[in-house]
UniProtKB/TrEMBL annotation:
Keywords: Metal-binding, Nucleus, Zinc, Zinc-finger. Residues 37-115 form the PARP-type domain. Residues 126-148 are annotated as: Disordered. This is Polynucleotide 3'-phosphatase ZDP. The keyword Zinc-finger applies.
Length: 373
């Protein structure tokens, strides 16, 4: 299920010693207040309610309270609908709940009734009682953080053995080559079956938090009619600053992109390879932070289906099993951003289906990066 957040969701403390000076103004500019509540359908049954400590069933509606972690990043505490600590300070109507418009009609009605019942009652509380409630909530939150720290670490470890079926691919570094069929790859790029990947970008680190992105139409404005390493532009002007903020907040940045032209253009395969890889290398240079890249070259209309082409999860599984140094991935903190969300005008729904198959939170690019340039 698609969950949308405002672009300020990933705002972290400004680190002037690490960021490119030309992006400093972006971090000091006024921004809209952070989203306080988000709603979505639980991707799996792994998350636990922060009030009752019971598991939230997969595909059931869960409400998340977004707050600032002491280390500077935003964190989401998930609750059952009946357990959520409503407060008129951060929600006055369903319009304040991110993702509400994406719920099914019956769930919209349930949540709207709940909010309309809870908020008027809260607003009648006197100022003195409000202060007491506020202090009590702070004490409760502090207690919850302590009580659930061990369970959070346990869930983090369990993410390495998810309940969802995992596509097993017998990968070996020895089987990787520096050519894709008859096309030569640039240094540091390798090929395995129908997958091309960036072997190791300097400064790249393993992490439990994965910030993953589609490339064409999400990070880069490209056209199938134009060929060449220079034939692209930033899809959104805020992209460099956003990716830098995520990187310095401990996220590992990964690009998962489909590129069937590499396989389709048999007589011009080298040009297709040079064009795609060249654009990706230039993009990484522009944003100024290391990124891991996986390119699925398989065709969409073949049987059996290519295991790496989105929405198949082969690229994600290879990254998780072979290229994250054994670090288990925190699925509650990780997410995927793509433009193929099955909306009117979208070329497909491959990106959202890719995220759903993995169990990742999914966001459309305009909600992360803002308006196009």
């Amino acid at each position: 299920m698609l969950t949308i957040i405002t672009s300020s969701f990933f705002k972290i403390p400004f680190k002037p010693n690490n960021l490119n000076p030309r992006f400093a103004l972006l971090f000091n500019s006024p921004m809209a207040s952070s989203t306080k509540i988000t709603v979505e359908y639980a991707k799996s049954g792994r998350s636990a309610c922060k009030k009752c400590d019971e598991k939230i069933p997969a595909k059931s509606v869960r409400l998340g309270l977004v707050s600032k972690h002491p280390q500077g990043f935003d964190q989401t505490k998930w609750h059952h609908l009946d357990c959520f600590p409503f407060s008129s300070d951060f929600v006055s109507s369903v319009e304040n709940v991110t993702g509400f418009s994406l719920l099914e009609s019956k769930d919209k009605e349930t949540l709207e009734k709940l909010i309309n019942k809870e908020i008027p009652a809260l607003q009648k509380v006197s100022d003195a009682d409000s202060d007491k409630i506020d202090r009590k909530q702070k004490e409760t939150c502090a207690q919850e953080d302590s009580e659930h720290e061990l369970s959070k670490q346990k869930r983090l470890k369990l993410s390495a053995t998810e309940e969802e079926p995992v596509l097993e691919i017998a990968f070996s570094i020895c089987d990787a080559t520096d050519t894709y069929k008859d096309a030569t790859l640039l240094p540091k790029w390798r090929a395995f079956q129908t997958l091309i990947y960036l072997e190791q970008d300097e400064g790249l680190h393993a992490s439990s938090k994965i910030a993953a992105f589609d490339f064409d139409g999400c990070l880069a404005n490209t056209s199938v009619r134009r060929v060449g390493a220079d034939a692209w532009s930033l899809m959104y002007p805020s992209i460099p600053a956003k990716l830098q903020s995520l990187y310095f907040d401990g996220y590992k940045l990964v690009i998962f992109t489909n590129e069937s032209n590499i396989e389709r253009w048999k007589k011009s395969r080298q040009a297709a390879v040079d064009s795609k890889i060249g654009r990706l290398e230039q993009f990484i240079k522009v944003v100024g932070v290391p990124i891991q890249v996986f390119i699925a070259c398989g065709l969409s209309q073949i049987k059996p289906e290519d295991p790496f082409r989105k929405p198949k999860t082969g690229m994600w599984n290879i990254m998780k099993q072979q290229f994250n140094s054994g670090v288990p991935i925190d699925m509650d903190e990780s997410f995927f951003v793509g433009d193929a969300a099955g909306r009117k005008g979208d070329h497909s729904d491959a990106d959202i289906r890719f995220a759903q198959a993995i169990g990742l939170k999914f966001y459309v690019p305009e909600e992360i990066f803002g308006k196009e340039n």
